[in-house]
Amino acid sequence: MLELDKILPVTKVKKNLLDILKNMSEDHSTITVTKNGKPVSIIMTPDRYDALMETIEILADLRLWPFLQARQMISEKSVFSKM
């Protein structure tokens, strides 16, 4: 989880929803909503959701894997060559 992510009980979310949404839009946090201590929902900004869906779509496209792996290998080589 990122530093800006939060875990809140559903009762607090219900009581403070407008404030929570305002804060989320400012700090781009993701909220895990719990009920009886167990996660039941996630609230995130539309930008974060779009980025997550784009990442899933890219990773699900098997045609892109060779390019992703090649890029990773190039990155590793460049890192080690600087050592």
Topology overview:
Elements: E1 6-9, H1 10-27, E2 31-35, E3 38-43, H2 46-60, H3 65-81
Parallel strand pairs: 1-2
Antiparallel strand pairs: 2-3
Describe this structure in words.
By secondary structure, the chain is an alpha+beta fold. It contains 3 helices and 3 strands. Strands 1-2-3 form a 3-stranded mixed β-sheet.
Share of residues in strands: 15-25%
Average the pLDDT over all residues and give the rounded result.
82
Secondary structure class reads alpha+beta
Kindly state the percentage of residues in helix: 55-70%
- How far apart are the first and last residues' alpha carbons, in Å? 30 Å
Question: How many separate structural domains?
Answer: 2
Query: Which outline best applies?
Result: elongated
**Radius of gyration based on Cα positions:** 18 Å
Throw out a few tags for this protein.
83 residues, 18% strand, 3 helices, alpha+beta, YefM-like fold, 2 domains
